[in-house]
Amino acid sequence: MRRLTDKTNSVSWQARWLAAALRYTIRPVLHLGTYLLHLPLPTGVVDSLARFVMVPPRGTVREPLRLNNCGAELVRAVGVAPADGSGRAILYLHGGAFIACGLNTHARIVSTLSRQADAPVLSVDYRMAPKSPMSAAVQDSVDGYRWLLARGYRPDQIVVAGDSAGGYLSFMVALTMISEGHAPPAGIVAMSPLTELDSAPKLAHRNSRSDAVFTRRCFTALHQLVTKANARVLVDGVPGPLIEPTAEDLTRMPPTLIHASASEGLLHDAELMTERLRVAGVPVELKTWAGQVHVFQAAELFVPEARQSLSELSEFILEVTERAGLSATG
Q1: Per the database record, which ranges form the Alpha/beta hydrolase fold-3 domain (predicted)?
Q2: 164 flagged as catalytic
């Protein structure tokens, strides 16, 4: 295991401005929202509005398609070849606490990874809570992975990437394929991943009060939300357990790169997953970034550290797929 910290002498003014802006705007809104979880949630609003804000670069190809139970889109940056089973491919799973965000909110991240890793990206619009349990999101994510396999890609040509809740799904895709006797993907890229659903360890972490986006109550509310959604699935008349990747057998997991903010609450989850993978003998690296917010990579148009992070994540994707004999272009 390697534990790295951003070595820059100072945090960019853009990152400082973003952290302050979110702390006094988004953070209180999310905190207020934790008291309204009993009401119908307008889960699609954020993604709809993002269509006009998170616009990918001109020339990006976004091809909508349908998986078994959800939508998805195949994204290619300018100059990237079609998804024909040659080269490499990325499966991307967006964050949003399993209740928000979607293809539009993450269009810029996905397009940037496509360009820098020279790969088409399948971005999955998985089913979300409270209407669907987490198992549905996992199934949709696995269906996305299987779509790439059916397209002709081998596991060693595919990297699974995700942020926040999508980080949880990324690990679950690999674990699901391994449990079914298949080879894992070439690697996993996780940005500020959620890996432990229990909120208590996060509340005890040193960052529980320093997060610029989430209050302590947000972590408790998320746990309550996914538990309630999970109650929709009964096994012998009782809700099935909430599966946490940190509690699973990780010995066959692929090389993993995790990037997280040094001051966010989910650093606990990133550190825990890194330690569990290390103990399992899996090549893993965690890099923490000072002065950044949760999934700061989404601000790559504005924050220089976000661009640097995505560049390093893309380099990792190129490296792990090199083992499949692919040319490192991009």
Answers
A1: 90-297
A2: yes
